[in-house]
Amino acid sequence: MELKFDHKATKVQQLTDYIQGAIFEKELQVGDKLPSINYLSRKYCVSRDTVFKAFFKTQGDRAYRFHSGKKLFRLQTIYKYSPVTR
Fold first, then answer.
1. N or C: which end of the chain has fewer CB within 10 A?
2. CA dihedral for 20, 37, 61, 75, sign (positive or negative)
3. CA angle 34–40–41, rounded 5-degree value
4. Which domain holds residue 39?
């Protein structure tokens, strides 16, 4: 999956949709490390805060749970499989 920002939603929402899409498409599975906040920040030219908010917004849907360890997030649990539609 590739992410290209548009003006239809906030960058946080678009990044959240991207992460959820990667989980739905099984590019990320339980136990996988998520790309680092610094990596995503540099890759998509957004602030670290934007990436951090997207990680926590994804968890806020209560469909996915991340485990944060030393400088990394790992996909811990998937409660449902449903594509994101906006």
1. C
2. positive
3. 140
4. 11-78
pLDDT digits (tens, 9 = 90+) for 52-84: 898 888 877 655 666 666 555 666 665 554 455
- Name the DSSP letter for residue 34: P
Instruction: Give the amino acid at 15.
Output: L
Q: Report which of 34, 20, 38 is spatially closest to residue 66, judged by C-alpha positions.
A: 34
- What CATH number has the domain bearing residue 64? 1.10.10.10
Is position 53 within any domain?
yes
Residue 47 has pLDDT above 90, yes or no: yes
Element (H, E) at 78: strand 73-78
pLDDT tens digits, 33-46: 778 888 889 999 99
Q: Does residue 6 lie in a domain region?
A: no
Tokens of 75: 């996909």
Domains: count for the chain: 1
- The torsion angles phi and psi of 58, rounded to 5 degrees, stand at -60, -45
The pTM score is 0.72
